[in-house]
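pasting for the record
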Amino acid sequence: MKIEKSIAIYNKRARFEFEIFDEIEAGMVLTGTEIKSLRSSKASITESFCQFIDGELYIINMMIDEYKLGTYYNHKTKRERKLLLHKREMQKFEKKLKDVGNTIVPLKLYINEKGKAKILIALGRGKKLYDKRESIKNRENKRNLDRILKKS
């Protein structure tokens, strides 16, 4: 039984705000109403970040709306959700996180082919203002080049 990868929730600000070094896919521990709400694309990862708590990696500030058909079993919209990674991967990220300025940010939340909720997280460092200006300039140049190529 295969389920299509129908939903994908992106963090568009992450690539603009951070210089991305290393990406990895992680699973999440979710409750029943959370996964039902996620399947209807009622989530946001724009303000979220990842943090180590007692040797485990958690995603903080990820917002999953309450399931509208859930009763008193409904979940909290913003709670800490545990991420599932191999021990080697967690140790690697924890080691790199000790460098000054590094942080772990989510890039994409999606449902894979097997129907499991996955999140693509990345290790990054915050960009300076001049780096952001450079990103804007490159994006505008690419857009203008595409327009010129489309016309000819």
